[in-house]
Description:
The structure holds two protein chains of two kinds. Chain A is α+β, with helices and mostly antiparallel strands. Helices cover 30% and strands 22% of the residues of chain A. By secondary structure, chain B is of the alpha+beta class. In chain B, helix 6 packs across helix 7 (229-244) and helix 10 packs across helix 11 (363-370). The radius of gyration of chain B is 28 Å and the shape is globular. Chains A and B meet through helix 2, helix 3, helix 4, strand 17 and helix 18 of A and helix 1, helix 17 and helix 19 of B.
Amino acid sequence: MLKISFYLNGNFKEVNIPPELTLLQLIRDKLNLSGTKESCTEGDCGACTVIIASKFDGKIIYNNVNSCIYPAAKVHGCHVITVEGVSKNDGFNPVQESLYKNYAVQCGFCTPGLVLSMISFYINKTKQNIELNHSFLDGNLCRCTGYKAIKTAFDVTTNYKFEDLLPEEYLSIEEKIINFNEPIKIFTNHQYTDADNYYMPLSLNELWDIIKRCEYNYKLVNGATDVGVEITIRRKFEKNYIDISKIPELNELNDFEDYFEIGGSVTFQRLKNFNSLISFYPVMNEIFPLIASQQIRNVATIAGNIANASPIADFPVLLLVLDAKIKLVSKESERILPLKDFYLDYKKIDLKKGEIIKSIIIEKHKKNYFVNFIKSSKRVKVDISTVNSAVAFKIKNNRFEDFVLAYGGVAKFVKISEKVSNYFISKRLEEIDEENLNHLIREEFQPISDVRGSDEFRYLLMKNQIFSHLHKYQNEK
Amino acid sequence: MPYNINSVAHLEGKSQFIGDENYISNLHVAKCLLSKYAHARIKKLDYSKALEIEGVVCVITYKDIPGENQIGHVVKDEPLLPVDEVFYVGQPICIVVAKSSRIAELAISQIVIEYEELDKILTIDDAIKEQSFYIAPKVITRGELNKSFEESSFIIEDVLEIGGQEHFYMETQRCLSYRDDSGGIYVKSATQSVSEVQEVVAHVLGLKVSDVTVDVARLGGAFGGKERGATLWASITALTAYITNLPIRLVLNREEDMLATGKRHPFKIFYKVGFNSDGKILGLDVKLYSNGGYYTDLSIPILERAMMHIDNCYYIPNIKITGYACKTNIHPNTAFRGFGGPQGIFTIEYILNKIAHFLKKQVIEIQEHNFYKENDITPYGKVVEDFVVGKYFKKFVNSTKFKNLVAQINEENKHRKYKKLGYSIVPVKFGISFAATLLNQASSLVWLYTDGSVSVSHCGVEMGQGLNTKIANVVVKELGVTLDKVRVESTNSKRTANTSPTAASTGTDLNGNAVRLAVLQIKKRLLKFAEVYLKQKFNCEISKLKFLDNSVECNNGKYKISFAELVENAYLNRIDLGAHGFYKTPEIYFDKTKHQGNPFYYFAQGFGVSVVEVDTLTGNFKLKKVLIYHDIGNSLDLNVDFGQISGAFVQGMGWCTFEEVIYDKNGKCLVLSPSVYKIPTISDIPDDFEINSIRKKAKKSSVLGSKGIGEPPLIYGLSVFFAIKYAIESIGNHEIDCKLKHPATAENVVFASEYLRNLIKNQLKQQEYDEILMR
């Protein structure tokens, strides 16, 4: 069991929880706040959205997250805000007022989550660079309204002060969070729990100690967007969870002369705001809105996206064509590996006992290349790709040079297509032949049929996406 | 200012849904063991190990049912729990009652069950082969079909398939139940059908119907999925509460819900159509097969509504519509917004699209050529009166606005290689009333309190559609009180009885009228009393008495008292301040054997326009523009009605595009979460989304001039499908049918685009190419 302390809607709470408890279970079942709803339990619908205020880099950041897959232990030392805590002196805040006036509420089941996401948007609008469009709400599904009224109610151009949106006294909690230094207490009692421990080391040295104490029987947790689903849907529990999200060494973002280095705990949202990388590789701007929802991007990490080894991951496909490398460290060793060599087989990676991904290295040598990413999915937003691909090349004397194409969704792991890449080298655009490409793709890949598409569809997409890349290049030229 | 009377509590997170009861002590949970097979004999069921787990109360099987093991309502063919044979994946076999859902889950995993797999029928094709149908085929026919085919210049014969749809109500199926202190049972169910749950629970428990109290506060979305679908889960919960004498809650998780509950019926349609060179249909022979799953459920009336909407807005002089509901080993498919209507209308729109291609004409031309004329008769015998959609459709397609739009799309497509634009316009005529005439009744109970506030009970269920707001507005309009004085209560089987499901877009029509009739009784008494009271108070002759803004005025506003004063004094003078209202829809009748009559009180009408941009390489599309004209009538709350229109449209779009229900070869549904089953997000709707009311006064309407709104606008979503088809077909300059399949998933879009590109590349005629593909 764990003893955690945090603030909930302005009030200090200290609770004993089992390590596998989710935040939604904590607030609904243990703390009896039933306004936050459970609908899919896998972070895909947003009905359970809450705001978490946490300390980062000496400042307080406010994120909307899916509480259904968020380990409750993670809110230790944070301020959790639910729908019960957003009304002002028993009246509406401007978000509620706007949804009310515009008839953006029908059955009401998605409403609390929607309110929290919208408040989160306005808080962050002034604080950081977030996408200023309705897409912020992609992770809040509504089956009743058809979103028309929600869109009207969600005026993305308005500016609100913090005190407009939330009770003013919440500002005073920021200081308490900043000064909060209590560690999570782990203790044993007779109560049955599915997992034993949830550790949250605050330095690499502490991490190495914990790893040793766990006798290498542990699961690393960061944003928990995958571990959370394992707990709630796959019902797979680990003996020990080690949460590495708060380790400062893993949270660094660096712009060095020859390369960018992204720490192993850097989230998609933070990378999206990493301006030097975005301006260096503008393709980044296009890929982020296609990856997951705001709630997920707020907590999910690049390293997690890599280590999860999903054959259909989006971001690693782009990293492959940029020749990214990963820095793997353990207590005893440190090594740098090209990302393409990290994947060994389906869901198998070259990560040794006690190793973690310390950082991801993106070199700058493809500055003037055409770099592009495309994904085909059932739904454009918040969906897993059927097939995705990324390409990086330059043209010299009208001929392709240093051409690299990588695919996701067509093999046991995300992969560079050696045959297609080689085919392009030294060819002129006019020489690219559809039949030849078809042939090469079929020689090199044997995609499977599943709920996201048939093998034949995947073959067509592999070919079509090449033409999509080229078409875009021609138009941009 | 008007507003939605439920939205304040929703926005503050204060609305209680089932699952939110943290105030009930000793609350236990029920969880079901669900069948892993589509058809199997249960050889062994041993739950002794489950009982050993601490916190498990008991395991309940069919043997424990005190009454009859039967939950069928209209057709009695569905056991609550199977005896020794299961018929679909997800069918509940036995129930664990435990202290927590985690304990119940562990207990389920400890149950030993052995199955012997039996032969199964999964698809419509399987069912046709095995002749596995519910009842005899239904037939609607008129005219001389063979003769019409002989007279036709052209004949097309074809087959088409239409996919199913998952309801994906945000709130999964759920129920809470406990015994009361006088031998009865209380059931808080997330159902659209209060009386069905009440009657079925009584039947299962061997109680009198009056012993069962069903209460429904609100639903977190339903869309038809809780019309019949909630009965099974309510019965299971009530059974466990009755047996254990504990308060029991059952909440399906998303995976259980998507696996076990019925969805929109997929259809397969065979048709033969004869037409002239101008596109006028002379004869249509159409056979509809719906996949009903196991147990009849509502498959028959859904099939009938599909058959009665094949005509949509078009007069088809000679027609034979034959309908078969297939009995297969999947979950019993059930009601879903539109109730077969969307499948019927999709069919005829698809046929018109086919004819247009054949004749190399615009679809609009074919639609217009076939429109009903005033007082034409539908194939099922109803006179088409007040056919307003034809007039407005013609006006719209001849407008410069529309012509420019089409011209712009065609011009742009010339310069676009892969990302193509498309548009479509779909007119809709949808019959309002339950086709089962008996269901078109409702009752109400209205009370006034001495402070002038009003309590309203009616038979309808609030599920997000704004029913309570519209009902409250009926009271506001008749009593002259403000909206905040009206409280619409939960739907409770003790305050209103013998309720019809809240369905078929009739919620406001039936219950609004029933409430109005009750209010008018009270109003009549109050007016009579007011004359006496005001005369006494102001010592004058009374004229022009009216109720307005929470007050009572007379003599052109010269004298005025508060409404509360009137009501309080009425009470002091022993005037009855309560009334029961009863309403039945007039004029409707239907002969079920001949399939002829006047089943619908009126038609909902309108048309929807969509413009899309399709990436023919990746298969993804963007909806650029939506324009809807709907005959709303004199709305009780225009914003509520607009909300219904946009919500229905987007749901219809989802059904026609990326919402795809998939099964494996063993009959197990594979879309069990929103990570694989995609409903639209906010990014899927366009900025340019316009909804217009055609007119305020319809010739035929319901309560205070308003019209049913829930289902018809879903069908405008079909225009997205046909717009995508148009966009793809611009690859072949609209000369070739791309044969886009329903739903227009990225996969189907890419296949259709590739088909056209290959055909053009190989310079083949469509027929030649199709023959090559067949080989």
